[in-house]
Amino acid sequence: MKPLVSAIIPTRNRAVIVKRSVQSALAQTLKQIEVIVVIDGPDEATQVVLAEIDDPRLRVIELPISGGAPEARNSGVYHAQGEWVAFLDDDDEWLPQKLELQLETANRSQYEFPIITCCLIARTPRSDYRWPRRLPSPTELTGDYLLVRNSLFRGEASLQTSTLFTRRDFLMQNPFRKELLKHQDIEWFLRASTLENAKIEFVNESLVIHYIEDRSETVSSKTNWQYSLKWIQENKSFVTPRAYAAFIMNRVSAEAAKQGDWKAFRILLQEAMRSGKPEPIDFLIYLGLWLIPQEPRRLLRDFLIGRKQT
What we know:
Strands 3-2-1-4-8 form a five-stranded mixed sheet, with helices on both faces. It has a four-stranded mixed sheet with strand order 5-9-6-7. The chain has helices spanning 15-26, 44-51, 69-79, 98-108, 142-147, 168-173, 184-192, 225-234, 241-259, 263-275, 280-291, 294-305, and strands at 5-11, 33-39, 58-62, 84-87, 93-94, 113-123, 128-131, 165-167, 198-211. Helix 9 (241-259) runs antiparallel to helix 10. The model has no long low-confidence stretch (mean pLDDT 94). It starts with a strand and ends in a 5-residue tail after the last helix. The chain is globular. It has twelve helices and nine strands. 42% of the residues lie in helices and 18% in strands. By secondary structure, the protein is of the alpha/beta class.
């Protein structure tokens, strides 16, 4: 029977953890699915692990050379047989009703190309968090929702790849930009939200477990504030001046502070004030990122908004 939904999992050299994500996809209450694992370049260890999974709905595609996660996702879309496509990062997992509830929401949508997302459980070794803490208002621009922070801790807003569910033909027309090393998901959501007859819609339930600490290092997770600054400058037309300033002061500065690159302190502050419109909360977050070490910030976050894992 032809699948209704194609679940696409890009992976490379993550044999230890990819099995968990694959099993969570195969355990969905919606059974009319296929799970496509796209191995981004030769990777014998991952092939061996996946061969242990005895389920005819699992398909494994090994690319001849590594092209990065965006290229692997695009390749998965190309080979998908389902009308709908959902993405899952290899270090995340889905809860059982994820695809069923998103498909129901998509079928009720009045838009030709619904972009269905959902809430998630952001998991650390110590605590769980519900992201996003708020949903976007009906008139809120995607860039403002994604990039602007009105509270001290991240997770107020969230659109993440492992929550994404939409039509295959929409993804064929609007693929991920394969040349991007970072921010591929943000860029895709920003671009897709401007297209005619497309709309981002939420399932207001936590249907994904997203592991936000102790993740294996990937190209997209490597700290590089210069790359992130260049990216937002090149995508300035997609965001408001407030969102532009917030991204620099909240995200780019977090990367620079993690690198300990103090010369970036003035560079980023000047760029945010010259080309954007920061608010007082942005200055507060900016100073906190530079002056308070990461571990005390994590402990404060756990105390104020975290909850013990169930």
